[in-house]
């Protein structure tokens, strides 16, 4: 029905808008075309409304993963115990080149359903598996079929010539992005929209850096920059006056700004963060992957000193989980651990925390939505935003006795608590079960694709690299 509305009644509503969070027993009403129309206590019934009883549940905005590589789902955990050099030699240097378009489709559909099942309603897909136009089409079709909200950031290939894309590369961004903009993802109000992934300054020539940004601006696309902006322990000190200055390089060509999201940024300098903050540029961090692969601790506190709120993400499914509840816990623990360690080493006490559970909750919702260029559409529960909503069921062992509800969710919730997921007003999960018609078929297709990729890859000569030929990609 054109005028039908749905009302979520009686839930404990948690929402994190700009600057603050609210927790209250409220009703949330949304229209059949997917817009939130009312939020308030005891909303008056309307004719023909559908009621979702949330009396024992937490109602929250869907989480937004601001940086994920869903094509890697077929390689889950193959690199968890590898160094970043080994990961890039195996997953990126060998396995990725064997992906056919149908393998990209299988991986992304599985990853998207995992996201929905875990309370994630939107992701930014940094798609560096664009080995052909058919690979791009398969990726987009998987996102459309899953029902997830996606900013599809079209990236570079990951084929047998991968080195040529990451070493002082003179290769411009693939021109197929123009076809996608003109013919496939023209509607910026659709559930799947187009963005662009670009490489950082130290991987490409200055001419390519300028060209790629100008191409994104010409096509009016949000831009995400990934590819080693975290630095890390495998290459030593890299940023600053005596090393690389990627943020200054981007500023010099006039491309810092709200249209850009920088990924990781762990070891950037305070002057870098000052430029980022002044320009309104976003930063997406992925604490689990950053600590696991060697970037180090997340840059949260140095960001907050410049009034920057990080967006949250999971990153590479070859090494870490796609669980955003886990990412929230990692962000809180890693940041406070860094604060505590610095205080201990300086002989000082910590009298109050510079990061709270409310801050972390906002990073996983409103701040991540903004970093996807979607802050005006999703990320909080308020009239005029899209109905991307998650209901968490009460569990006697982790989600009852809610003395501090936001802290309870940040520190204790997990995908098993996700009862209902609504994206754009459509129920994607209800009563703890996905609405997708045949999850087993999705898993079977992923297993067939995984078998193909590993069968086509000669792993007999795989050895730990003695020389890091990927050093500039680190």
Q: Summary?
A:
The protein has 14 helices and 18 strands.
Overall 3D form: globular
Radius of gyration: 22 Å
Overall pLDDT score: 93
What is the share of helical residues?
A: 25-40%
**Count, helices:** 14
Poorly predicted ranges: 462-474
The termini sit apart by 53 Å
Largest sheet: 9 strands, mixed
**Percent strand:** 15-25%
> Care to count the β-strands?
18
Structural class: alpha/beta
Protein architecture, described:
The protein has 14 helices and 18 strands. By secondary structure, the chain is an alpha/beta fold. The chain is globular, with a radius of gyration of 22 Å.
Topology diagram in text:
Blueprint: E1 5-17, E2 20-31, E3 36-40, E4 50-53, E5 57-61, E6 63-69, H1 84-95, H2 101-117, E7 120-127, H3 133-146, E8 149-154, H4 176-184, E9 192-198, H5 206-218, E10 222-225, H6 246-252, E11 260-263, H7 270-279, E12 282-285, H8 287-293, H9 300-304, E13 311-312, E14 315-316, H10 324-346, H11 357-364, H12 366-371, E15 389-393, H13 405-412, E16 418-423, E17 426-430, E18 433-434, H14 439-455
Parallel strand pairs: 1-4, 1-5, 6-7, 6-14, 7-8, 8-9, 9-10, 10-11, 11-12, 12-13
Antiparallel strand pairs: 1-2, 2-3, 5-15, 15-16, 16-17, 17-18
Helix pairs in contact: 2-3, 2-14, 10-11, 10-13, 11-13
């Amino acid at each position: 029905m054109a005028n039908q509305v749905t009302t979520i009644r009686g839930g404990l509503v948690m929402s994190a808008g700009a600057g603050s969070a609210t927790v209250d027993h409220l009703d949330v009403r949304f229209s059949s075309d997917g817009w939130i129309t009312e939020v308030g206590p005891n909303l008056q019934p309307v004719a023909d409304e559908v009621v979702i009883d949330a009396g024992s549940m937490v109602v929250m905005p869907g989480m937004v993963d601001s940086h994920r590589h869903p094509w890697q789902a077929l390689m889950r955990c193959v690199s968890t115990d590898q160094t970043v050099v080994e990961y890039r030699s195996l997953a990126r240097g060998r396995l990725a080149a064997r992906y056919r378009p149908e393998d990209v489709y299988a991986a992304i559909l599985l990853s998207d359903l995992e996201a929905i099942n875990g309370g994630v309603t939107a992701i930014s897909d940094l798609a560096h598996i664009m080995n052909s136009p058919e690979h791009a089409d398969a990726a987009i079709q998987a996102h459309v079929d899953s029902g997830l909200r996606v900013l599809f950031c079209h990236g570079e290939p990951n084929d047998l010539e991968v080195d040529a894309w990451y070493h002082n590369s003179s290769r411009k961004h693939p021109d197929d992005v123009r076809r996608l903009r003109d013919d496939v993802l023209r509607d910026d109000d659709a559930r799947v929209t187009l963005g662009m992934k670009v490489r950082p300054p130290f991987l490409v020539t200055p001419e390519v850096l300028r060209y790629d940004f100008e191409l994104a601006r010409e096509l009016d696309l949000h831009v995400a920059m990934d590819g080693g902006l975290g630095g890390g322990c495998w290459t030593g000190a890299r940023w600053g006056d005596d090393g690389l200055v990627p943020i200054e390089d981007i500023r010099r060509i006039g491309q810092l700004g709200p249209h850009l999201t920088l990924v990781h940024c762990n070891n950037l300098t305070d002057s870098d963060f000052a430029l980022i903050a002044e320009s309104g540029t976003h930063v997406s961090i992925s604490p689990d992957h950053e600590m696991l692969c060697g970037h180090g601790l997340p840059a949260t506190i140095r960001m907050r000193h410049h009034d920057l709120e990080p967006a949250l993400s999971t990153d590479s499914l070859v090494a870490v989980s796609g669980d955003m509840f886990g990412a929230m816990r990692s962000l809180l623990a890693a940041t406070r651990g860094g604060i505590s360690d610095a205080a201990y080493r300086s002989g000082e006490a910590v009298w109050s925390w510079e990061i709270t559970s409310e801050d972390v909750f906002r990073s996983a919702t409103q701040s991540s939505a903004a970093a996807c260029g979607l802050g005006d559409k999703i990320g909080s529960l308020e009239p005029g935003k899209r109905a991307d909503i998650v209901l968490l069921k009460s569990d006697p062992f982790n989600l009852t006795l809610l003395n501090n509800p936001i802290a309870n969710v940040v520190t204790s919730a997990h995908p098993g608590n996700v009862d209902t997921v609504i994206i754009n007003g459509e129920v994607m999960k209800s009563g703890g079960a996905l609405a997708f018609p045949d999850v087993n078929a999705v898993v079977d297709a992923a297993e067939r694709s995984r078998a193909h990729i590993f069968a086509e890859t000669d792993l007999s000569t795989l050895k730990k690299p003695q020389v890091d030929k990927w050093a500039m990609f680190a």
